[in-house]
Amino acid sequence: LTGKRGISFEEIARTAYDEGRGRLATQLLNYEPRAGRQVPLLLNMEEDEIALDKAIESGDTDLVFFVLLHLKKKLPLANFFRMINNRPVASSLIESSARETDPELLKDFYYQDDRRADGAHVILRDSLAQKDLSLKMEKLKLASKLLADAKEHALEAKALDESAKLLHMQEIFEKDLQQERFVGDSINETIFKLIRMGYSSRANKVKSEFKVPEKRFWWLKLRALVAKRDWG
Amino acid sequence: MAPHSTTIDTAHIKATAQKELLDLLVAVSPASSTLAFMWNLADRLFRYVVPPPTPGAAELLIAGQDHGIDKIFWVEENVVADVTQKNVVFLVRCTVRNALAIAAIYRSSLDATTYVTGEERSTDKPTAHVKSNAKIPGQQFEYNVLFVPRRTLVCEKILEDEGVLGDLTIGEFPLHFIPLEPDLLSLELEDAFEELYLRKDHTSIFYSARALMNIQRRYGLFPRIIGKGDCARRLADALIRMRGEEDASDSSSSPFALAPSSVLGELIVVDRESDFMTPLLTQLTYEGLIDETIGIHNSKIEVDSSLVGGPQQSGVATASSSSASPAAASSQQKKRPIPLNSEDKLFENLRDTNFAIVGNLLNKVARRLNDDYEGRHQAKTVSEIREFVGKLGSLQQEHQSLRLHTGLAEEIMKHTRSDIFNRILEVQQNLAAGVDPSSQHDAIEELIARNAPLESVLRLLCIESLVGQGLKPKDLDNFKREILQGYGYQHVLTLAALEKLQLLQSRTSITSSTSTRTNYATLRKSLKLIVDEVNEQNPDDIAYVYSGYAPLSVRLVQCVIQKPLMTRGRRGEDPSTPAGAGATVNWAATGWRGFEDVLKSVKGKTFDELQRGEEKAVRARNLLNGANEKRVTVVFFVGGCTFTEIAALRFVGRREEGKREIVICTTGIINGDRMMKAAMEKQ
């Protein structure tokens, strides 16, 4: 029968399944080229993994998603994660959709898969979205702690610590020098603003605190003085 | 109906899309009622199919008014202002975000119904189809959603979870390719790059396959599918699979449906991932530079109205009729959208040239135009004067367009003359040419200290990483610190994303991974990526688009369709002799043949698939259409292409004019900044 046009193996398989011959139905379904028809029946027959694989094979991400939503509802979360773990197409779909709708799920997923850096990034994203400064810092520390465990992320972990330190300094600057906003600026911007406003000792403090290289500092100073039109 | 054309008719694609949309709208509403019509601002796509109410709006809006479209809104801030009509139609892409937005609008509109009840509406029409909600008196709305290109289970699930699914009528509008130019089809999926390579979400490949399938349905199968890259392979697999599915469906419409085409030649699929470097370099053609400095979206740019002169007339820059659409007056802002396409003849001549010669060309046109105007003095007799007046319209139009492009060129000049721009360009060219990267580090550090745009700095570092197979760990850490301190610690995320994209990596992580990467150092020689003395005035090689660097992606295409030229170049003979002159070797060879070794140093899978059909069907088709000597070669870029690549392919196309026609397809138009923005966190 193969190769003939217009033959629906899905219908044959469905009949076989209805007759109680599950194995035969699965085998028959292999001949059905239209994934859109294979998958629902496979789910019906509780052939979850095969259904997922067939959906992935089809390249139709919506179909994959359909299976995933079905499975997520049906299975305990740990089992669900295990099933998608070794299927990159499935796990990246869950990742990208959870990014927009369900960050908690994402955290669980990364934790379970031991992907510390990715998990830390979710928390960092959280922190960036926070308006409240102390909450922001708290999340920063959490993210940094997660990163610090792995050697290859030492730089990132340190950067996040620095970031917390900078926020703290900026908060003080804002209190002391009421006319300017600092929180959220980068180190370069902070130094630039301080020099332009004429607080060069504070600028120097930032420079030494964060080990800003001499060359960059002088460029910043030059630009800030020009902006201030201070040709002295 | 079998088409008898010898080329892909892009106008047909547009016409079909417009007709389908109108049919959908008619189906949604009874012929005489009026719709409020909305779509998502983020989806600039629809400005093409349904142009916004600005001067110069094309056919469809007018047609749409005949079909009762009353007002058009962009869905923004989840608030729908001022709905006067009973029917509300959302036209949106089926994304999670859009589905959530619709649900929010719908619910907020329920709360605000009291506001709408003030609307007076004749009630002599039967209102049976109006959703009955007895609690709210007065005006009821009918909500319709048209998902593009299809309704997805995901979106329905979201609408269901939000509890609004039952109150919406959902349809789909299968819009895939949007013909930007007769030789350029784009899916205009702006996020395709990010989705494919960062999120590993292959939805856009699926839509690409559908779009190509539509072409195959009309013109027959591509006899050959050639490609390079993993995503390209997926696309080819999806196409082959869809053919199988089509065979299985019962609709045996035509006996030789899906037999190899007599119009189409090969389909060449290029994966963006196999050549990341090209879009990272600053494009140096006129259109490319406009995209780099101002940004082109859906063949339009937004410029200061001062640049184009009078507020109303400037729409004449294109030939399209400026209609007095209802909301035209309301859209008076400082920035004005200007269409950039081949309807503007001057632009068509300028767009693909190297920017260095644009000034000269503009000057020439100005002189000629002046002469033409002066011609009026020679007009002595009545008939001569009449003739001159007849020409006047087109002269004025040309004048307008000249003014626009002189203004644009000046804008760009301001930019290209700046110190920072030239620094960036210098570093780029050095890196591309293979200069020791560490010699460029001072310049990059200086750019950071001088607060050059972050995108530009990252592009430079990514180029270094691509060319040099990663950065030395020490250098990479140093630059990471510079960037975090210079642009903010939130870019920890950006840097991580660039690493995931394999754009910015440390050398150690590259040597430990097993996957092959594009090796520009070897390819530079074997494919002659660097051409030292490139003629910008009168280009003899595609390298003119980057003033000396030939895009690898287009070189790969040349390996398929310009074998003699490419082999000559490799043997070191004079590459400037035109193709086909004395070609004997390999002339008949097809596919990748002859370049297998070169392809090994390009990232991703290599493939070459033949699509055959039943003998009978092939013969029938050939009998019907006559075997064309000249075939259409379709070049498809998965993950986006740049304007420079388009220009380079047009250049190749002109050389091959007698033998084939090249049509370029892509998931979207991309440039280096857009690539970097994909890695950055969206605020």
UniProtKB/TrEMBL annotation, chain B:
InterPro entries cross-referenced by the UniProt entry: Sec-1-like_dom1, Sec-1-like_dom3a, Sec1-like, Sec1-like_dom2, Sec1-like_sf, VPS33_dom3b
GO BP of this protein: vesicle-mediated transport
Pfam families reported in the protein's UniProt record: Sec1
Gene3D superfamilies membership: 1.25.40.850, 3.40.50.1910, 3.40.50.2060, Syntaxin Binding Protein 1, Chain A, domain 2 (3.90.830.10)
Stretches with biased composition (Low complexity): 313-332
Annotated spans, Disordered: 312-339
Similarity comment: family membership: Belongs to the STXBP/unc-18/SEC1 family.
Protein name: Sec1-like protein
